[in-house]
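Long-time lurker, first post. I've been practising inverse folding by hand and with some scripts of my own, and I keep getting stuck on stretches where the C-alpha cells seem ambiguous. Below is the full C-alpha cell string for one chain I'm working on. Before anyone asks, I'm not after the true native sequence, just a reasonable design that respects the backbone. If someone could post their per-position residues I'd love to compare against what I wrote down in my notebook.
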C-alpha cells in the first residue's frame, strides 16, 4: 500500500536520502583508499624482501670471488 506524505515530509525524506547516499559514497571511497594503501604496502614489502635477498646474494657472490692479484714491485 502506498502512503501519501505531506510536502514537508516528502522534502525531508528526499533530503535524508541524499544525506544517506553521500554517507555511503564516502564510506565506499574510504574503503577504496584503504584497499589501495594495503596493496601498496604489500607491494613495498615484496620489493623490499626481493631487494634484501638480492643484496644478500650479491654479498655472498662477492665474498666467494677470489681477491684480485696485486702486481708486485720488481
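-- Answer (accepted) --
I ran through it position by position. Result:
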Amino acid at each position: 500500500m502506498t502512503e501519501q506524505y505531506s510536502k514537508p515530509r516528502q522534502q525531508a525524506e528526499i533530503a535524508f536520502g541524499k544525506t544517506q547516499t553521500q554517507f555511503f559514497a564516502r564510506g565506499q571511497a574510504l574503503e577504496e583508499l584503504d584497499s589501495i594503501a594495503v596493496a601498496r604496502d604489500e607491494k613495498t614489502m615484496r620489493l623490499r624482501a626481493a631487494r634484501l635477498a638480492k643484496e644478500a646474494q650479491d654479498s655472498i657472490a662477492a665474498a666467494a670471488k677470489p681477491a684480485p692479484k696485486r702486481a708486485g714491485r720488481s
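A couple of notes from the structure itself: The chain is about 80% helix and 0% strand. Helices lie at 7-64. Happy to go over any region you disagree with.
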